[in-house]
Design brief:
By secondary structure, the chain is an all-alpha fold. The chain has four helices and no strands. The protein has a domain of about 35 residues.
């Protein structure tokens, strides 16, 4: 079994986490993307969609496909 020593300097500031490089790189990439901030138009569109959903004004996948001409 491989053993290694973690310097006290690294453990003085709280918890220490060890994970595979691949997972670390995925997390690092997510941190760079930032947070999504919708525009006013997107917020209005979402509010309208939620309102329509609450009123029962929805279409099934099949209805949408037929209206777009993808299904018979």
């Amino acid at each position: 079994m491989t053993t290694f020593t973690i310097p006290k300097k690294l453990t003085q500031h709280g918890d220490l986490v060890v994970l595979p490089r691949e997972q670390y790189e995925e997390l690092a990439m997510l941190a760079k993307t930032g947070e999504f901030s919708p525009t006013k138009a997107q917020k209005r569109a979402l509010a309208k969609a939620e309102s329509n959903l609450n009123k029962g004004k929805t279409l099934s996948y099949g209805d949408v496909a037929r209206k777009l001409g993808f299904a018979n």
